[in-house]
């Protein structure tokens, strides 16, 4: 895999399909997002899909040249005593991706975290939605927080083939976010200290990013992640709802019974030996959305491959984490502090 920013970045998702696995109920109020740069007179931009047409696989993503650059701060969305919140855009894989960024007050450079949110219907999603508690707390803890909207969300460019190709593009958006942070040249950002934090669907992004781009991040955390096996997510979330994309996926790629090699190639567990970063997984024992055995299987596979992985189960917590969320974040911040400071 080749990685490229405006200045060549050092070091190095297939996203598990889980349209029913949401980012929870901790959504924040709507806010204004910066528009992607447009030439004078240019209308809304729709670029051809950058997702590999064929084959669709993690190996194909590993062999792609990934790009990330052009981090631009737009409108100020909020100012607190601890940080300033901006609308941002950046380039990833030839697309302009929107998001929000919290920059701490004080003298930097600060370590940075890329946040990968859970599933929220793109038709109702607004920029920065999905992890507001984490955005606020981590910025107050001294981290630059870049929350990516992903392609097809908010003000980001469109990728019409993303769903049928198992949302590979979300991984490119996360990789591009890290490369854009490294390449930004902003004095507040320490491009040599970057972590990844995903929840629910974003936990699937974490798994796949770690095997596609080993060495790009310094550490990663997954909260209540989806299954590392895309076929399980399809059966659990999409098929019961009659999602027509399932038929498109199986017409293009075959079912697990018809094309087992394809489905083996799209699980990060097949490529667990590639991961190099320490990984913390936190999962509630009462999660009724993403079953705990999914995280047990993923942790066991990475551990069997000799990787630095820890699964922390949180007794009694459901999918979105409630009473024990603050304590779980204490663990998360301590983990990032060990590996990013």
Task: Note down, in words, how this protein is organized.
The chain has a ten-stranded mixed beta sheet with strand order 1-2-3-4-6-5-7-8-9-10, with helices on both faces. It is globular. The two termini are 27 Å apart. It has nine helices and ten strands. 28% of the residues lie in helices and 23% in strands. The longest helix is centred in the middle third of the chain and has 16 residues, at 168-183.
How would you describe this structure in keywords?
341 residues, alpha/beta, ten-stranded mixed sheet, 23% strand
Protein structure class: alpha/beta
Mean pLDDT: 88
Shape: globular
The arrangement of helices and strands along the chain is: EHEEEEHEHEHEHHHEHEH
Cα separation of the termini = 27 Å
The low-pLDDT segments are 6-54
Number of helices: 9
Strand content: 15-25%
User: What's the Cα radius of gyration?
Assistant: 18 Å
The largest beta-sheet arranges its strands as: 1-2-3-4-6-5-7-8-9-10
């Amino acid at each position: 895999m080749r990685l490229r920013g405006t200045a060549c970045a050092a070091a190095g998702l297939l996203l598990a399909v889980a349209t029913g696995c949401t980012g929870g109920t901790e959504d924040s109020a709507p806010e204004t997002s910066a528009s992607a740069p447009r030439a004078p007179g240019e209308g809304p931009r729709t670029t051809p899909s950058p997702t590999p047409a064929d084959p669709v696989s993690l190996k194909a993503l590993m062999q792609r040249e990934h790009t990330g650059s052009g981090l631009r701060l737009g409108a100020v969305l909020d100012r607190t005593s601890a940080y300033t919140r901006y609308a941002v855009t950046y380039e990833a894989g030839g697309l302009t991706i929107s998001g929000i960024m919290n920059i701490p007050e004080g003298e930097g450079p600060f370590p940075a975290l890329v946040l990968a949110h859970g599933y929220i219907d793109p038709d109702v999603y607004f920029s920065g939605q999905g992890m507001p508690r984490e955005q606020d707390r981590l910025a107050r803890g001294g981290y630059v927080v870049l929350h990516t909207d992903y392609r097809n969300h908010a003000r980001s460019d469109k990728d019409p083939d993303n769903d049928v190709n198992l949302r590979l593009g979300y991984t490119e958006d996360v990789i591009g976010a890290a490369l854009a942070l490294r390449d930004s040249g902003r004095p507040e950002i320490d491009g040599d200290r970057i972590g990844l934090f995903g929840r629910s669907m974003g936990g699937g992004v974490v798994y796949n990013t770690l095997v596609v781009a080993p060495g790009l991040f310094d550490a990663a955390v997954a909260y209540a992640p989806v299954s590392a096996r895309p076929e399980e997510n399809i059966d659990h979330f999409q098929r019961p709802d009659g999602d027509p994309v399932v038929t498109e996926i199986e017409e293009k790629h075959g079912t697990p019974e018809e094309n087992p090699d394809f489905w083996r190639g799209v699980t990060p567990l097949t490529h667990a030996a590639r991961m190099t970063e320490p990984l913390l997984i936190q999962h509630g024992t009462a999660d009724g959305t993403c079953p705990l055995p999914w995280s047990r299987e993923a942790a066991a596979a990475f551990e069997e491959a000799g990787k630095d992985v820890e699964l922390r189960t949180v007794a009694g917590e459901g999918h979105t984490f409630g009473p024990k969320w603050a304590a779980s974040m204490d663990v998360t911040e301590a983990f990032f502090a060990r590996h990013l400071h």
